[in-house]
Amino acid sequence: MARYPTNGLTLDQASAIITAARAKGRELNLQPLTVVVLDAGGQVKAMQREDGSSLLRPEIALGKAYGALALGFGGRELARRAQSMQGFMNALSDIAGGKAVPVPGGVLACDANGVILGAVGISGDLSAQDEVCAVAGIQAVGLKPDTGDAE
């Protein structure tokens, strides 16, 4: 039997995260969501854009996940740092080619030991609501979400 590296999250986990995150969005009657799941190497593992989701939602969702993964902090911490360290965050955005979006809705997916396995970014509704859906998706596969706030 061949074994392949997963680079963190498996495709099955990424798909299940998206399904659960979207279900949470429908439960809360949110605007159409776009969900992006990145593996530990920062590569897109899976993405879904709900019907009616506006034009740049995939890029915004990717930026939320990418920013969190790039610095190892959930979106809430990135947002705080964007306020207090504007020069650094501007440089980060430049270095990342504009792909880092420092707002809630980018959530790290960690194992029980706190090892980062990937990140989820969601865009479509208010950032705090996007984050609720990301957390639900990550928890649905038995992983620990890191939003950037202390537990």
TrEMBL record:
It comes from the Bacteria. Gene3D superfamilies: Haem-degrading domain. InterPro entries: GlcG_carb_metab_protein, PduO/GlcC-like, PduO/GlcC-like_sf. This is Heme-binding protein. It comes from Roseicella aerolata. The lineage of its organism: Bacteria, Pseudomonadati, Pseudomonadota, Alphaproteobacteria, Acetobacterales.
